[in-house]
Amino acid sequence: MSLLVTLAASTEELAPLLMPPLAFAGIAAAIFIALGFVVFSFRDVANRQGQGAGKSSDTHGSGH
Fold this sequence. Notes:
The chain is mainly alpha-helical. The protein has a domain at 18-47. The protein has helices spanning 2-9, 21-41, 45-59. The termini are far apart. The model has no long low-confidence stretch (mean pLDDT 79). Keywords: Membrane, Transmembrane, Transmembrane helix.
């Protein structure tokens, strides 16, 4: 029991953070939104590549 009382009574100073916790959350949200814009900007690339590949394979006389 004395070990538990000793651990509870000892107060260690925690390491200080570089900035408030909400600032870390804000930075994470900003990065998430920026990456969302990157993904959103490439939303139609597969459709454009599929149309281009279909036209080029038709002109080469492939039988597939």
